[in-house]
Design goal:
The chain is of the alpha/beta class. It has 21 helices and 11 strands. The protein starts with 16 loop residues before the first strand and ends with a helix.
Length: 456
Amino acid sequence: MARRLSRSQDGRPAAPVRIVHLGMGNFFRAHQAMYTDRAPDAAQWGIAAFTGRSLGIVPEMQQQDNLYTLVVQNPEGNEYQVISSLSATHSGTDVEQLLEYFRSPELAIVTSTITEAGYLPKPGGGLDADNPAVQGDIEAIKAGNLAAVTTAPGKFAAGLIARRDAGAGPITFCPCDNVPDNGEMVAHVVRDIAALVDPSLPEWVEENVGFATTMIDRITPAISVEALQAITDDTDIEDPVAVATEPFTEWVIAGDFKAGRPRWEDAGATFVDDITPHELRKLWLLNGSHSLMAYAATIVGRPTVYEAISDPVVSGWVNQWWDVAAKHLPLPADEVTAYREALLERFGNPRMKDQLARIAADGSVKIPIRIVPALNAERAAGGEPIGAERAVAAWTLHLRGVGAPFQDANAGALAGLGDGTLEESVEKVCDYLGIPDAGARASVLVLARELEAAAV
């Protein structure tokens, strides 16, 4: 009979908690937790991970001493790794426990994977202080009810107040979300809410809080029933909280860690002074092609990344998009070419069952940063960015109910964009995305009609 993981038989002893993580999703456990586990000083750097608004997988994690199996799905077969870096797991609603970690001088880093929307930023940067939940947190903190906060910015502010009052010393925020310049985004949010809750807090933040910016890259779909069964068949372990991922992984980091950090560079992370070129390369080439396939390939009946890239027509669309993006990346041409070749190999891994419907969610915050900048830049240069315009055309049809099911955190702001004639939808979508060029709009309409005609 298959057994469950336990520290008495698997992994290593739990390390002291020096990192708190918000957002205990699959990507975090396949990426940052893995890098921490592989660091040569891992025994000194335990992670306390918090879920979102519910217990989630916490009971299952705690049943196996917060260990889990990382399944690396190589084309030739699975590789299994027991990850030991999570020393504690908690519900995201357990704010009092979060505050206790903030009060500890041992805590050095706060990492997070809560998506851009989770930081509650406003357009143009900074905190959306008009958000009712944010307002509620500000009132709770001012009243001294630190544990009553519910939002990530509220938790950050409450945690920093608790840390300051405990004299626990400096700390660094290291967001790991797929957002350009995520460190500055979080810094802006933290500074804004600090000023709103306590006039004396911003000065303490300036002196004691560091912010790191990261570029993260590893495809991590939901684990399949087949992969879970393979763990049992191959290792005699039953692990309901296992994570499946691809062989490729990359983590680029820039920033100041005021209270130290694990030796992530010895586990494969890269530390740089300027992260922007690396961010754009990944955001446009990987994430941009993901979004293109999520909207366009599902229209023609290709539900997974592997099936999409295996279709010569869809593969051609992807390469057309890459041709546009490559012209505007501040990187050597040979580096861009090598990354494109690596992406084709990654997308073509038949053992990765990455559902495009999952990738299609929240296009309102993805298309503007993954596709539109290169589209507008190419039009401004006098070019015709067909590959980028096809992605916008496909998203327009997505808003009209064609292809992958619609799911978007900003659904209210998108209301009506898919209504009316196709021509009217294209105009409204281009207005929403900030695509002013008349030629681009005409091209998007033509491509939308072609995709609509090819729908299955």
